[in-house]
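lol ok so funny story. i was supposed to be doing the assay writeup but got distracted and ended up predicting the structure for this chain instead. priorities right. anyway since i did it might as well share w the group, maybe its usefull for someone
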Amino acid sequence: MKGTNMHRLTREEWETHISIDAEGECAIIDTSIPKDINKCKKLGYEIVRENHYEDGTICSVIFKAPRRAITFRSMEAVNRKGVPMSEERKNKLREGRERKRGF
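and the output, tada:
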């Protein structure tokens, strides 16, 4: 299903809402954030509705996804910086990129 929207949203108005239906075991994702729209499409979530601006560009999309596709992470996992890379590892990666580019 498609709809139209006359008012173009600003970055401050972009948002994503995730509603979980416990009985139906599904998640409804309503988003106007382009990065989230692209991610949901890439993951193959079912498109319930697309809203477009008058010029045809996408304004927002409502997706339906399996409940198990939505997960919550601990703050420890979110704030983790990862293991710092050694100079040796950085040099090895740099050399590999240069070989690939033909330097």
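Residues 87-101 form the longest helix (15 residues). The first strand starts at residue 2 and ends at 5.
back to the writeup now i swear
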